[in-house]
Amino acid sequence: MRFVWTVAWRLLRDGRFQTWLIVGGVTIGVAVVVYITAIIDGLQVNIIDRTLSSQAHVVLRPAERLNQRAWDARAEVRTLADVRKRTQREATIGDVDAVLAAVRAVPGVQAAAAVASGPGVAQQGGVRKAIVVLGVDLADFQQVIRLDDKRREGTLSLAAGEALIGSELASDLGLAPGARVRLQSASGEVLSVRVAGVLDYGVQDLNRRRVLLPLRDAQSLLGYGREVTEIDVRVQRLFEAQRLAADLSRVTGLTAESWQAANGQLVTALRSQSASGLMIRFFVTLAVALGIASVLVVSVVQRQREIGILRAMGTPRQRILAVFLLQGGIVGLGGSLLGTALGAALAVGFTRVARNADGSPLFPIVLQPELFVSSAALATLVGVLAAWLPARRAARLDPVEAIRG
Question: pTM of the predicted model, to two decimals?
């Protein structure tokens, strides 16, 4: 093995210009892979965070009531009372504590919260705005949807008779923390509440319409008694929400909708980004492999006489093969180490250049240890595989023809 290392190193050192040229190519290739991957992963994390920061991963609701066929035993025919879809009144979930306990017992569920929601109107000084009332237990709800990073004014509390409103609604009605606002439900029930805090969800429609109330106040205002309209769920593994939605539906008998089903266009965009990143990495890797192979082929041609002498001295084909495979591995490993460092530096530099108006990064860059390890391993493997054909050619050289040539 020492012989293989010695010969491989001398060949690389003697052709140092070619060696540094291909190491530079591998470095740039790996840097591009690391940089593109970090950018795409960071962009996806940012998009998902912005989209899901104000919605649950899975939402459980009562199933819609469908028309039932009537059976006429004498005529032995089935008839429909009405071919039109049945008008749906607001369906609710009873026995909330039992349902929550069943949901939280499902493996993979991180948190669950009961929500009583319904339409209403907010009125202040003769101005009326359509709203969506959400009654929640604040402690449970914050485990599903984080609110502390959305507070803009006031306090994050929901005592009886208090409300948390969106920033657009506060601006439209001229409300500030401490002010009172009159809420009216679609059924005509009226409730006067004090604004405890103003939230910014990052979504204009939510800022204009969403009003959070204590669960009991919302149930009373909307006429639900002790029932709720949905169960919001947060899962431990984000991309397993679709599978968990099926499990939760089976356990509870409710209709379950995952964030993937509710955001079909987002999922399509994420898949397109991942596919684009994969294609970029594939062609960069292919270019690196061709570069390594071409340099080693030239090395075999240039070192043909030396290889012939080694073969004439009794060096086995396997050792000649190992020499050039080792060269490919060394070039791949050296380039990958330099490339991962360069790619990480470029990614960090991007976050310092691309910034929002407030000076914060445009979006986070994801640099995980797995990315460095996988990139280095892939580049080393590509180097060995790219050296395979040149190594076989060197090992198959006839000693007499090689020395004569």
Answer: 0.69
